[in-house]
Amino acid sequence: MTKNLSNKIILMILLLAFSKILFFVTADAIAQSLDLATGKSEQPVEVTSDNGIEWQRGNQVMIATGNAKASRGTSHIEADTLRAYYKKNKKGGSGLSRLDAVGQVIITSPTQRITGETGVYDLEQAIIVVTGKKVTLISGKDKISATQQMEYYEKKEMAIARENASVLHDGKLLRANTLVAFFSKDKNSKSQVYRVQAFENVRLVTKTESIWANKGIYDVISGIVNLNGDVRISRDGNQLNGDHATINLNTGISKLLSAPVTASPKSSSRKKKRVRGYLVPKTK
Fold it and tell me: pTM for the full model?
């Protein structure tokens, strides 16, 4: 009998001994579970590992170590170690409330993939938090990265990338301290990013331009990026400075604007900042 088979037998014994509901997500949990895969209330969460599974009844936690994996339907959470926490529900039974993943975390569905060093999947709040020096979320052709933390909110279909965050879409790269990405389903029911909000140290990089700003909103479908605050556009050694910019990534047309006219508090005169450009003539 192989080691993997022995672990599965141990798991079945634990299930029979401590009640078969341990690996079933309750109807309440299903309503809040990760929507990266479909599932039914009676569908079990299967946990497997290479080095064994430990059940701590007093702590209501099950620990799987060594290439551990938790699966329900087409959703999977893999890590060196998995801890599954249970709690009493209103009906008097027990339900899976949280999954903690430690070491080489990989969370997948048919449409998305999240990787990092550690992760917490809160089934009750329907929120996944993955941390690490490099965390990534791949959704279709889009890739979102960060160097601190990635949060995924199931109900809002939204992800937040924190610290040195970036999103790559069709060769266009948007960077910022914090990025907030919103998802929708395409005509093939595949998840895709349709809107990104960027905050602090925003930088947009295309094949021909580098653009800086304090904050911005990227409409992925239309290809239009609206940037605000200390906007600088650099291209071929030339630079344009302004307060607001509208960039159409599909047409390559950029429009730079100054701040709205404001009245001086000490006088009735109205002042308006001017858009500035620094153009470098080509040398023969």
Answer: 0.77
